[in-house]
Amino acid sequence: MGTFVLNIMLARHLPPSEYGHVSILFGVLFLLQVVNTTLVFYPMTVRCSVALPDKSRALIHTSLLILVPLSIPLCIGLAVVNLANGRADLALAAIAYFLCWQFQEYCRRALFAELRFRDAILGDAISYLGQTLVVVSLFWYVESLSMSAIFWVMALTSAVAACVQARQARLTMPNAAGLAGTWQDFWQIGRYSLTSNVLGITRFQILSWTLALAYGAGSTASYQAALNVLNVANPVLFALLNLIPQLAARAHLSGRSSAWNAARNCALLGAPVIFALYCSALIEPRLILSAFYGAGSPYLDLTGPVRVLVLAFMAGYATEAVCSFLHGIDAPRTAVVINGIGVAISIVVGLPLIILYGVMGAAAATLISAIARLVASHMILKRMLLEDRVGQVI
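The structure assignment produced for this chain is given below.
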């Protein structure tokens, strides 16, 4: 929720062209973070969910030795992106934030791996809510706040949160014993998940980049501002999607049908809250846009794109639940197919729709891509469950 509020504050206070550049940079940050999530955090969580306590602790500590060297080329890539974008002034601050963010994410995932979700709340509050409160205060007292200063604030709050959660997780110096075997195991688990998640994020980034090339960063800002309205549900959504693979992995010992029942029940648990938020945006998009960005905001005319994106996100929720289930049963290659279809559709229909209709075209491409993913996920899931029942009968 803290990241969401921060995004809203940036949209309110930055000119559209500047916010467009910032949203592209945040998109790159999330794209890079996917590498660590899929190759370190996700395999660690999956393996720890079915391991004995001693083995689980060993895996958590060994994971840090994988995370550190993996982050180095990602930081280099982040610096290159800033230089290519003409924002060398942001490179150091963005790298500092990325490193602190990754270590804090590692600490919170260590708690998640042991199902200590409540213990992670304090650190998450410091990191996500803390950075938002500080930035909002600075916007209030400082007339012109630079993005470099904002990134340093985010780095500081992430570092403090990491220290708190590291202490809660009782992390100690990692042991390199078994490092090579653990990395090979993590790579086997995460490589297809990496491809799947990169495709999932790229599906949106392609549309943002196309808008920037065709109409300028201001159009990218409008598309991101419309997405922000739907992102209000992300805290609940991400919590469920992080939990589904663990539940599915444990239930998978009794077969795919049992694993899907566990995943489906988890998805249904959060559905009322998520769909209530989506429906409010569908019914009163202008009211929400005004509440988010102010009565005189240039984003108030985005009611059409917001309504189209609501339908896309509703379809996407069911698809993401299926993809999380696939990750939990060690079938990420199937999720790659689903997200690959989404990217292909975004490319094929996105370019002409954006050229013809701008931001509305990007929203329409998002919806078409979401429908294609939903149909593909339904067909794949139906086939997998049918094969599981046939296998049980035989």
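Interim note for the steering committee: The first helix runs from residue 2 to 13. The chain has a mean pLDDT of 87.
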